[in-house]
Amino acid sequence: MTTTTRRRRPSRRAALYATLIIGAAMSVFPYWLIVSTALKPRGELFEAAPWAPPSSPTLENLGALLSSDFAQSILNTLIFVTVLTVGQLIFTTLAAYAFARLDFRGRNALFWLYLATLMVPNVVTLIPLFLIMRELDLVNSWYGLVAPYVFGTPYGIFLMRQFFRSIPREIEEAARVDGAGHLTILWRIILPLSRPILATLAIVTVISSWNNFLWPLIITSSADTRVITVAIAALRSEIGIDYTRMMAGSLLTLLPMLLVFVFFQRYIVRSVALTGLK
């Protein structure tokens, strides 16, 4: 190893660490801005730099939101997320088992046709979905809010199907010899072996449902069905934007997702890894 190469290594390492530190700072800065702004009194926001910490932190903004209709939006979001998660687990499991284990004509073609809908942006289907809900008189209702997602998604079915196909068929064949049917095999054999992927699907569904904004914005119009993401957008008034109140709402939205990530990050990483299974 030459002297020149030895000198280059520390400089490259220093440049790498500097790049990583800058990237980490850029990633953390928006979250710091949310927390800092949410804890500032209204008059202090424009008196100093936006990124400066609050001189006198206050929970007034959070308390004002929790004592308003925003608290109802949090409850609505919890109901929305729970219904979608339970529905996804039930219907996605049934569909994935059919695609993975049942033999019927056109199974693979139907599966790949259904999976191809992942290539279609969600915004393309928003207007047709809204027209369907309007004809069914489901606009501004809980049924219209959850209907497009509660019966499963292509991503969830693909994720579960790939895992089901990795379970040895010998286990299923042994159960058939004992007289077990499809529902018995699914309930007593497949599902106990699929607890990790079920947890992964639940976590992914919770995160995506909690952050869903565009469809709830279009299909709902009253506080009774308004979710938290739409409630944050509704904090804008005709006079202007109350940034401290809006950042307080963002903080209330962010905290549950941070807790989910901290406690269930291995399942989130697993969902990315399992998507590549053959």
TrEMBL record:
Record's GO cellular component terms: plasma membrane
Keyword Cell membrane in record: yes
Keyword terms, alphabetized: Cell membrane, Membrane, Transmembrane, Transmembrane helix, Transport
Family to which this protein belongs: Belongs to the binding-protein-dependent transport system permease family.
Domain of life: Bacteria
SUPFAM superfamilies referenced in this protein's UniProt entry, alphabetically: MetI-like
GO terms of biological process kind: transmembrane transport
Membrane topology field: Multi-pass membrane protein
Listed InterPro entries: MetI-like, MetI-like_sf
Transmembrane stretches, start-end: 14-34, 74-99, 111-133, 145-164, 185-207, 213-235, 247-268
Subcellular location: Cell membrane
Domain ABC transmembrane type-1, chain residue ranges per copy: 74-264
Listed name of the protein: Sugar ABC transporter permease
Organism: Kibdelosporangium phytohabitans
Keyword Metal-binding: no
